[in-house]
Q: What sequence folds into this?
C-alpha cells in the first residue's frame, strides 16, 4: 500500500479517533503531510513483518503543548534534522520511520520526513492510540531504551538525550520542550527491525486509514458513520470490540492543571434527561461511567464524537452544550498484558479500580 | 432614536426605535446598487413615524454582502501576505489547504519573514525591518494594495504586527493593511486565513460602506453609521470598512439579539422559523452561544466567532408527504407520513394550496388547524382532523427534539418564536416553560442591529503560579472593560459577558488561556469617544 494525498484525509480522521481525546488536532499534521507528498511523491506503507531484522527503524513525533502547536507551527526541517543527528550518533542510515503514537496529530508526524527522504513508513506505532507521556510507549513497557533520543525545534536547536532510565528521559524531554518554546520534535526509541517486529503495535496505521475511510464513505452515502466506524474497528482485528457508550449532550466540563497535565471531568446527560455519563480525562479520556457504573477504562479507547458528523472532539475542545456520542473500543492486546497494565492501566493514572475489559463491561461479543 | 437596517439577499428590513419600542418598521426589496434599497427603507420608516431626520441619533446596518462576495468569488482583491514567524511555520505556508479558485483570485504573493513571539513572550526571531520594507516596495510596484500581516502569538502581543504595519505604510502609503490580531484569536493558520480574506474584501468593503453612507447622505440623514458584527456588537463605519470579515455573519446573531430585546428575556432558546428551515440558537446573557468548531468561510477554515445554530428542515414552505388517498383517513398510518425536509421555498406564493397551488405545505396544515390565518382557506383540500393532528404531532416532535438538543441546562427553557413561520411553533412544547412571540418578530434582525452595543475582548495566556487566578481574572476583566470604553462604550453600562478559560497542558506554572469579552451601550456624548475618532481617522488615512 502507498500513502497518497487522498489517503491522508482518511488517516487524519482515523488518527483523531484513535487519539482517545488526546494527541491534538491532526489538521496541521495533515496539511504538512499533504505539502510533503505534493513535493516528493507518495510514501510506501511497509507491513511490519516485511522489515529486515537488522534495519534501523525510528519512531517520530512531536512533544509539547497542543495550544502552542497551533500558533508556533513547524519549520519543516525538525524531523529530518533529528534523523540526521541520530544517524550520526549511531553511525548508520535510517531505513524506515513510524509514528511514536498513532493517535492525534502524531499519527501523521513522520509522513513529511518519509516523503522527503524517500523512506517507507512502517504500518505500526508505539502506543496503538495516544498517551500523555513518552514512557507509556509499548517499547518502554517491553524494556527497549528510549535513548539516544534527539529533540529538534524550528529555530535549529538540537538536543541529544542519553539516559538508561526511560522515566528520566521523559522528564528531561519535557523540560527541553518547554525550553524550546513549548513544542519540539523528537526521534526516540531507535529500534532494530527485529525489535520493531517483536514490540511495535503492527497494523495501526492501516487501521486508522480504514477507520477514516469508513466514516467518509458512510457520510458520502448518507449512511450511519458510527455503524461504519464500529465495523471498521472490528474488521481491523487490532481493535476487536467497539460500540456506543453514550448518546447525549455535555452539561458540564470541569478543568484544572496539575503537574503539567490537563485534568478534567465531563458530565453528559441523555436526550430527554435520560441517563447520565461522567468522563474523567488526563489529556486523554481515562474512564467512562454510565449511571454510576464504569463502562470503559484506560487503556481501552474512549472518544467523544460529534453525534451528527462523527468528528472526534479532543478533550481541550470539549464544551458545555456539545451534542455527542461517546464511543469505546478495545485496546490492542499488547496494551492489556500484565506488564503493560502497570504503565498504562487504571492504576498508572490513579483511578483506584481494577482493569476490566470494555467488552466484559458492556457484554459485547464479536460478530 | 436608533435606526436598524438588515440588508439581506432578498429583503432590506428597517426599524426605527424610540427608546425601547419599535416606532416604525418596513420590509423592502434589496436593490442591485444596495444604496437605493437602504435609502428607500430608511425613508419609509421615518415617514411612517413622522419624525425628522435629525431625530435619528445613530444607524446600524447588518449585511450579508461580504459573505456573498466570498462565496461567489467576486470583487476580491489580490493580497500581499506577510507572515512574521520564521523559521517556525515554514512547513505550512499561507494559503495551504485553500480552494484553488480562491487562491487564483487573490494571487500567491507570500512573504515568510522572521519574527513572531513564543508562548512565554520571547521573540522567535527579531523582526527583519529591511525585508518588511522590501516586501512592501515589491507589492507597491506590482500595484497590490491589500496586505495581510500575521505574527505568531499576535493575540498575546500585537507589537510586531503593528511595527511591521508602520514600516509598510512608510514604503507603500496607499496600502490597505489587515493585522491578524484585530481579526482572530489563537490558532495562527485560522487567524491568518481570516486576515487574508479580510484583506481580499478591503476594496469591496469600502465601496459597500460608502454606498450605505452615500445613500443616507442622499436623503439627508447625518447620524453616525455603524455596522453590526458577527458577535452582535457594532463597529463605526470606518472600522467596518477596515474589518469586513468581522461583519460577515451578523444575520442570525442580530435576529437572536432582536428577539431577546423584544421580549426582555436574556436567557432563552430562539427559534427562527423561515420558509425552509427552523434555526435554533441559544441566548446566554443576551448573546448567542458561539459555535465551538472551526468556521468555514468560502471554503476556508477560520476561527471567527459565529453563533451555534441548529437548522431543522421545518419551515412555512416545508412539503408534507402523504398519499392523497390518505388525506381523509381516520387513522393515518404513521409510516406513510413524512414532513420535509424539502420545501417549496419562495414558490410558496404559487405552489401551496392556500395560494391556489396543489402542493401540501406546513402552512396549509397550520391554517387548516386554525393556528394561522392567511391566504385563501377556501382552497385547502379536505383533511381529516386525525390527519391534521398527526402532522401537527410530527411538527411538535421535530421542534421538541431540536429544543432538547440545544438545551444545555436542566429545567425548562423560555422559547422565543420569531420569523415569518413562527405560527408553526405550538403554544406549549416539552422542555419549554413558555413560548413567547414578540411583536415585530418578522424584523427581529433589524431590531438586533438597532440595539447593538460596543464590544471588546482581551485574550492572554496567564501562569496562575505567578499571578493568582482571582487576581489575573480581575486584571483581564478590567482590561476588557477599559477597552470597551476606549472603543466608545458608556462606562456606566459596561458588562463582562463572557469569560472563557482553557488550561494548557505541558506548560509550567499552571498556565491557562483566558479570553474575556465585555460590552457596553454606545456613549451618547461623542466627545467621550476620542479613541473611535482617532481609529477612524487612522483607518481612513490607510485607504
A:
Amino acid at each position: 500500500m502507498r500513502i497518497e494525498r487522498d489517503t491522508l484525509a482518511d488517516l487524519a480522521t482515523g488518527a483523531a479517533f484513535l487519539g482517545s481525546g488526546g494527541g491534538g488536532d491532526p489538521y496541521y499534521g495533515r496539511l504538512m503531510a499533504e505539502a510533503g507528498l505534493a513535493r516528493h511523491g507518495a510514501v510506501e506503507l511497509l507491513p511490519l513483518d516485511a522489515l529486515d531484522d537488522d534495519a534501523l527503524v525510528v519512531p517520530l513525533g512531536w512533544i509539547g503543548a497542543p495550544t502552542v502547536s497551533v500558533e508556533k507551527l513547524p519549520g519543516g526541517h525538525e524531523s529530518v534534522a533529528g534523523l540526521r543527528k541520530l544517524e550520526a550518533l549511531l553511525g548508520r542510515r535510517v531505513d524506515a520511520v513510524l509514528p511514536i503514537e498513532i493517535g492525534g496529530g502524531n499519527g501523521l508526524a513522520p509522513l513529511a520526513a518519509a516523503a522527503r527522504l524517500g523512506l517507507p513508513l512502517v504500518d505500526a506505532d508505539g502506543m496503538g492510540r495516544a498517551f500523555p507521556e513518552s514512557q507509556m510507549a509499548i517499547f518502554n513497557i517491553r524494556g527497549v531504551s528510549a535513548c539516544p533520543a534527539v529533540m529538534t525545534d524550528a529555530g535549529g536547536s538540537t538536543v541529544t538525550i542519553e539516559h538508561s532510565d526511560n522515566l528520566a528521559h521523559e522528564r528531561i524531554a519535557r523540560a527541553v520542550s518547554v525550553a524550546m518554546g513549548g513544542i519540539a520534535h523528537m526521534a526516540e526509541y531507535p529500534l532494530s527491525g527485529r525489535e520493531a517486529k517483536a514490540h511495535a503495535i503492527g497494523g495501526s496505521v492501516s487501521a486508522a486509514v480504514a477507520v477514516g475511510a469508513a466514516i467518509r464513505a458512510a457520510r458520502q452515502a448518507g449512511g450511519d458513520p458510527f455503524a461504519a466506524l464500529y465495523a471498521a474497528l472490528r474488521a481491523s482485528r487490532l481493535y476487536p470490540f467497539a460500540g456506543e457508550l453514550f448518546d447525549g449532550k455535555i452539561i458540564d466540563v470541569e478543568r484544572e492543571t496539575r503537574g503539567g497535565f490537563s485534568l478534567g471531568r465531563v458530565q453528559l446527560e441523555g436526550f430527554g434527561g435520560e441517563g447520565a455519563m461522567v468522563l474523567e480525562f488526563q489529556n486523554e479520556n481515562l474512564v467512562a461511567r454510565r449511571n454510576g457504573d464504569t463502562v470503559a477504562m484506560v487503556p481501552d479507547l474512549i472518544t467523544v464524537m460529534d453525534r451528527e458528523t462523527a468528528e472526534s472532539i479532543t478533550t481541550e475542545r470539549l464544551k458545555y452544550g456539545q451534542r455527542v456520542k461517546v464511543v469505546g473500543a478495545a485496546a490492542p492486546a499488547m496494551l492489556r498484558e500484565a506488564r503493560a497494565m502497570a504503565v498504562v492501566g487504571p492504576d498508572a493514572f490513579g483511578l483506584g479500580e481494577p482493569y476490566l475489559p470494555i467488552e466484559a463491561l458492556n457484554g459485547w461479543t464479536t460478530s | 432614536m436608533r435606526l436598524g437596517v438588515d440588508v439581506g439577499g432578498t429583503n432590506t428590513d428597517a426599524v426605527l426605535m424610540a427608546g425601547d419600542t419599535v416606532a416604525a418598521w418596513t420590509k423592502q426589496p434589496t436593490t442591485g446598487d444596495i444604496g437605493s434599497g437602504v435609502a428607500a427603507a430608511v425613508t419609509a420608516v421615518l415617514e411612517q413615524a413622522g419624525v425628522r431626520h435629525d431625530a435619528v441619533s445613530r444607524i446600524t446596518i447588518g449585511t450579508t454582502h461580504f459573505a456573498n462576495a466570498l462565496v461567489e468569488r467576486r470583487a476580491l482583491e489580490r493580497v500581499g501576505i506577510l507572515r512574521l514567524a520564521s523559521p517556525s511555520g515554514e512547513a505550512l505556508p499561507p494559503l495551504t489547504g485553500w480552494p484553488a479558485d480562491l487562491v487564483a483570485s487573490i494571487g500567491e504573493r507570500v512573504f515568510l519573514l522572521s519574527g513572531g513571539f513564543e508562548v512565554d513572550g520571547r521573540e522567535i526571531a527579531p523582526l527583519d525591518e529591511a525585508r518588511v520594507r522590501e516586501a512592501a516596495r515589491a507589492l507597491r510596484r506590482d500595484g497590490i494594495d491589500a496586505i495581510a500581516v500575521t505574527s505568531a502569538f499576535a493575540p498575546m502581543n500585537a507589537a510586531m504586527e503593528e511595527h511591521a504595519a508602520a514600516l509598510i505604510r512608510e514604503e507603500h502609503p496607499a496600502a490597505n493593511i489587515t493585522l491578524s490580531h484585530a481579526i482572530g484569536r489563537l490558532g495562527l493558520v485560522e487567524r491568518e486565513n481570516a486576515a487574508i480574506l479580510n484583506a481580499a474584501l478591503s476594496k469591496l468593503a469600502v465601496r459597500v460602506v460608502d454606498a450605505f453612507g452615500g445613500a443616507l447622505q442622499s436623503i439627508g440623514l447625518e447620524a453616525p453609521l455603524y455596522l453590526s458584527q458577527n458577535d452582535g456588537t457594532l463597529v463605526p463605519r470606518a472600522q467596518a470598512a477596515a474589518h469586513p470579515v468581522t461583519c460577515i455573519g451578523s444575520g442570525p446573531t442580530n435576529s437572536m439579539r432582536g428577539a431577546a430585546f423584544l421580549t426582555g428575556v436574556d436567557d432563552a432558546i430562539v427559534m427562527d422559523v423561515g420558509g425552509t428551515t427552523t434555526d435554533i440558537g441559544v441566548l446566554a446573557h443576551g448573546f448567542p452561544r458561539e459555535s465551538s468548531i472551526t468556521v468555514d468561510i468560502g471554503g476556508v477554515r477560520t476561527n471567527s466567532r459565529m453563533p451555534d445554530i441548529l437548522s431543522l428542515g421545518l419551515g412555512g414552505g416545508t412539503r408534507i408527504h402523504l398519499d392523497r388517498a390518505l388525506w381523509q383517513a381516520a387513522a393515518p398510518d404513521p409510516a406513510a407520513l413524512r414532513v420535509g425536509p424539502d420545501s417549496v421555498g419562495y414558490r410558496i406564493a404559487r405552489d401551496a394550496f392556500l395560494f391556489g397551488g396543489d402542493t401540501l405545505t406546513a402552512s396549509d396544515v397550520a391554517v387548516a388547524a386554525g393556528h394561522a390565518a392567511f391566504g385563501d382557506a377556501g382552497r385547502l383540500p379536505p383533511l381529516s382532523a386525525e390527519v391534521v393532528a398527526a402532522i401537527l404531532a410530527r411538527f411538535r416532535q421535530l421542534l421538541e427534539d431540536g429544543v432538547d438538543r440545544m438545551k444545555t441546562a436542566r429545567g425548562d427553557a423560555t422559547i422565543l418564536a420569531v420569523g415569518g413561520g413562527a405560527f408553526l411553533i405550538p403554544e406549549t412544547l416539552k422542555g419549554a416553560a413558555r413560548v413567547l412571540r414578540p411583536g415585530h418578530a418578522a424584523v427581529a434582525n433589524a431590531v438586533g442591529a438597532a440595539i447593538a452595543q460596543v464590544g471588546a475582548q482581551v485574550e492572554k495566556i496567564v501562569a496562575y503560579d505567578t499571578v493568582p487566578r482571582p487576581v489575573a481574572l480581575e486584571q483581564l476583566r478590567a482590561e476588557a472593560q477599559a477597552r470597551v470604553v476606549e472603543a466608545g462604550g458608556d462606562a456606566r453600562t459596561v458588562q463582562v459577558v463572557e469569560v472563557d478559560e482553557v488550561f494548557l497542558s505541558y506548560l509550567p506554572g499552571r498556565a491557562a488561556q483566558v479570553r474575556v469579552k465585555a460590552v457596553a451601550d454606545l456613549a451618547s456624548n461623542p466627545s467621550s469617544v476620542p479613541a473611535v475618532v482617532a481609529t477612524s481617522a487612522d483607518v481612513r488615512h490607510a485607504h
Remarks:
- The longest strand of chain A covers residues 242-258.
